[in-house]
Design goal:
378 residues, alpha+beta, D-Amino Acid Oxidase, Chain A, domain 2, eight-stranded mixed sheet, 8 helices, 19 strands, 26% helix, 29% strand, binds flavin-adenine dinucleotide
């Protein structure tokens, strides 16, 4: 047991923690990154082949911040010398009774991002793989695409190490059992001894309320299940990146939202429902039950009929951390400028992660960020 002290401690090495460590190291700041599992694990929210990225948000504030996020990913790609973003185009669609696509199109217009509004009939003319009614409301955004998820996390940890040299320390398989905030400096209680931080940045994903039970906002861990469809024979090519877009469907009812992406990195076509049951993040449950499979197949039969007979040869489970209003939460703990908390999830945080890392490094080193993030206050 020994006491460690560190200037910047980042708790959690998922998408947000890895990005924060990278941005701190990039500024010459010493950083200690602490992770309870092995790096690259699949127990949290950031693992898997890919995540959707898009400017296509009904809330214009998110659409505008995505301009900065796209820039942040380009800087990361340049620093790493690798591509993490694959431009596939993206379709957002909904029934005409749902007030969604109209707002998405207005957001894209407001930030001058190219897009094309389409009816269901036009959508099928361009992509015969889609089904649905002629009067479906749709908007296509050419710049939408996929981000290589697990790879982006690994690349940012590697950059934090290479840019930081011995100023960067990464401790994995080191669960923080508790946070002691009673003293002058925040202290992380671990089995190997306390870690005393000058600044503590908490990016603990679904475990954040466990570490901070008095956090002034309700955040609920939920379990997500993903199916991968394997189109057979000649049909497969039609679902490849460049031929098939990422998509987001917003239905009339809660839990009637679905999303998906082209076949990628050997995985089939990803289709999943947005939302799932509340869970204890410590309980590992990888089952994908028949009821859920039936729900996703029901969506596929209606909107991706070409896949309705396709086998699902792969499933994945993952955690969301959900705020009731689906807004992110980023900022200093009330009364503690030395403790910064980030819970940017609700199932749509990955595309912002590189920018969130930049913002958290700003707040840690300058006490504030120039970006307009008041909608994310704790
Ligand atoms: C199925 C699925 C699909 C998604 N699709 C998209 C998408 O298409 N586009 C998009 O933008 N977003 C998407 N998201 C959301 C996005 O992936 C998440 O918002 C993002 O990955 C959250 O990252 P995080 O770093 O906050 O969480 P995590 O990756 O879970 O990181 C938190 C880390 O903290 C560690 N930790 C927690 N407690 C402790 C402790 N006590 N001690 C030490 N370490 C600890 C955990 O082990 C974990 O590694 C999706 C999420 C899921 C689950």
């Amino acid at each position: 047991m020994h006491t460690r002290t560190a200037r910047n401690v980042v708790l959690g090495a998922g998408a947000m923690g890895a990005a924060t460590a990278y941005h701190l190291a990039r500024r010459g700041e010493p950083v200690l990154l602490v992770e309870q599992f092995a790096l690259g694990h699949d127990r949290g929210s950031s693992h898997g082949a890919a995540r959707i990225t898009r400017h296509s948000y009904a809330d214009p504030r998110y659409a505008r911040l995505m301009l900065d996020a796209f820039r942040a990913w380009r800087v990361l790609e340049a620093d790493a010398g690798v591509n993490l973003y694959l431009r596939t185009g993206g379709v957002s669609f909904c029934p005409p009774s749902v007030d969604y696509v109209g707002r998405v199109a207005a957001s894209l217009k407001a930030i001058d991002v190219p897009h094309r509004r389409m009816s269901g009939r036009e959508l099928r003319q361009v992509w015969p793989e889609f089904g649905g009614a002629d009067d479906t409301d749709a908007v296509f955004e050419p710049d939408a695409g996929m981000l290589a998820a697990s790879r982006a996390v690994a690349v940012q940890v590697a950059l934090a190490r290479s840019l930081g040299g011995d100023r960067t320390q990464v401790v994995e398989n080191c669960p923080v059992r508790q946070l002691d905030l009673s003293g002058e400096r925040p202290t992380l209680v671990t089995d190997d001894g306390p870690i005393v931080a000058e600044r503590l940045i908490i990016t603990a994903g679904a475990w954040v309320t466990r570490l901070l039970p008095t956090l002034p906002c309700a955040l609920e861990p939920t379990r997500q299940r993903v199916l991968y469809f394997r189109p057979e024979g000649g049909a497969a090519a039609a679902y490849e990146p460049g031929r098939f877009p990422v998509f987001i469907y917003k239905g009339p009812e809660p839990l009637d939202d679905f999303y998906g992406m082209p076949a990628f990195l050997g995985c089939g076509v990803k289709v999943a429902r947005h939302g799932g049951p509340a869970v204890d993040p410590d309980i590992e449950d990888r089952t994908v039950d028949d009821e859920y499979r039936g729900i996703v197949r029901g969506f596929v039969q209606k909107f991706l009929p070409g896949l309705s007979q396709a086998p699902t040869d792969r499933t994945e489970t993952c955690l969301y951390t959900v705020a009731r209003d689906e807004h992110f939460r980023v900022g200093c703990l009330p009364g503690r400028r030395d403790i910064i908390v980030a819970s940017p999830c609700s199932g749509h945080g990955f595309k912002f992660s590189c920018l969130i890392g930049q913002i958290l490094a700003d707040i840690a080193t300058k006490g504030e960020t120039a970006l307009e993030i008041s909608l994310w206050q704790l």
